[in-house]
Specification:
Number of helices: 5
Order of helices and strands: HEEEHEHEHHE
Shape: globular
Largest sheet: 3 strands, antiparallel
Number of strands: 6
Low-confidence stretches: none
Structural class: alpha/beta
Radius of gyration: 17 Å
Helix content: 25-40%
Number of domains: 1
Distance between the termini: 29 Å
């Protein structure tokens, strides 16, 4: 792979790039090896058990943000991971899903652009083994010309 200039934003006159190259470069930035396997950056850098614990805690606590008091009685029944392409860091995501599959929550929603799954069928097959996983693929930015 040629060393690419990291494409953070599309600007007028941008040079087309391979999204798989960009994903590989992004993975170098947002993941690292830790004591419990591959760690992933979200707000901070977390191991799979930490991510699972934070998801479960958020679900247990419900809505706690100021200004949303009227929704505090609501409880979360489904877990969801989206944004910043959650399929980057395969080992990490598979570990998080093991925790989700063994949790009391009936559904784990994964929102992805699907590019990495389309490029790696073995990854898609591994995800298909999780009983509680609902994979939602985004079509944002798809051009049909």
């Amino acid at each position: 792979m040629n060393k690419m200039k990291y494409q953070r934003f599309l600007q007028p006159g941008f040079k087309p790039f391979d999204p798989l190259d960009l994903a590989r470069e992004t993975e170098k930035i947002v993941t690292r090896k830790g004591k419990e396997g591959l760690e992933r950056k979200y707000v901070g850098i977390y191991s799979a058990p930490e991510v699972a614990q934070k998801l479960f805690k958020a679900a247990e606590n419900g809505v706690t943000s100021p200004g949303w008091e009227r929704f505090r009685k609501l409880r979360v029944e489904k877990l969801r991971l989206s944004g910043c392409e959650p399929t980057i860091g395969k080992e990490h995501l598979l570990s998080v899903l093991k925790y989700a599959d063994n949790s009391k929550y009936p559904l784990f929603i994964l929102e992805t652009n699907g590019i990495l799954l389309g490029a790696d069928r073995s990854y898609a097959k591994k995800l298909a083994k999780f009983k509680k996983l609902c994979n939602m693929n985004s079509r944002k930015g798809v051009y049909h010309g």
